[in-house]
Amino acid sequence: MSVMHSYQAFTSARPAPVPADVPADLPAELPAAMPAATAAPLTYSPRQRPRGEGEALIRQHLPLVRRIAWHVHGSMSTLVDVEDLVQVGLVTLVEAAAGFEDRGQVTFNQYAATRVRGAMIDELRRQATTTRGAMRRRKEYHKALAELTGKTGRAPTEAALAERLGVSIDKLRTDYVTAEAVRFDSIDEVYQDDLPWFADDTPDAFAQLAEGDLRQALIAAISALPEREAQVIQLYHVEEMNLEEIGQVFGIGAARVCQIKAAAHAKLKKALQKQI
């Protein structure tokens, strides 16, 4: 509780009324010494800013928000639209008008300007996609490009830019030319049905159904193979073992394994042709 609020609360307090059951011949000072529960509680209300006053402050400082937005946009970033900064500033201005207390030390103009600028800078930091070093190099690169173009009337060469920046051509390519920030565009603005990167490469329902039927037919055909042929197919296609390794498992030569595999493949092919 502030000093002013406390002063107003206690100066506006009044003695509690004497209860009806207190005898009239008691001393006058007795009611004041009675327990506090018989008196109404002391309350106070903080000073509320009139609604019209807050709206007037907001309307009066709208140009301040736009001026700060253009200043921040021009000196710090061109990636965030200036109107987005204005929106951030307007929200902050409304909050500042609601929470400002005039104590005679700071004017509302100073208070609002500080809060609005801070909110805009925080928004830029939140959306930053590059480091400060990259932002500095990008700014130096575009400044050198503009100066050299203004002098010669045409785009400068890499050698001229590197000399202007005091770096090698390799460093110019790796650290300056590529120091552009990542831009995020709205999906609604760039989406088109005929663009290849928006195409869905997953099979359609009929393809998935056909693939499922083929898989089930293949499983059934392998299950119908003799045990030795099914084992060879398992080791060759699933375990990815070569013919020599499979022969060592069964104690036979690689040529015999090749014959077993060929016979199994022929049976599977015949079974799948019936399915198709």
Keywords:
single chain, 276 residues, mainly alpha, Rna Polymerase Sigma Factor, Chain: A, 4 domains, 64% helix, disordered N terminus
Explain briefly what this protein structure is.
By secondary structure, the chain is mainly α. The protein is built from 14 helices and no strands. The protein folds into 4 domains: 36 residues, no CATH class; 76 residues, Rna Polymerase Sigma Factor, Chain: A (Orthogonal Bundle), CATH 1.10.1740; 44 residues; 59 residues, Butyryl-CoA Dehydrogenase, subunit A, domain 3, CATH 1.20.140.
Structure report:
There is one protein chain. This protein has 276 residues and is mainly alpha-helical. It has four domains: 3-38, no CATH class; 51-126, Rna Polymerase Sigma Factor, Chain: A; 134-177; 217-275, Butyryl-CoA Dehydrogenase, subunit A, domain 3 (Up-down Bundle). The chain is built from 14 helices and no strands. It has helices at residues 3-11, 30-33, 51-60, 62-76, 82-99, 108-126, 132-152, 158-165, 169-177, 187-190, 205-223, 227-238, 243-250, 254-275. Residues 1-11 and 21-48 have low confidence and may be disordered.
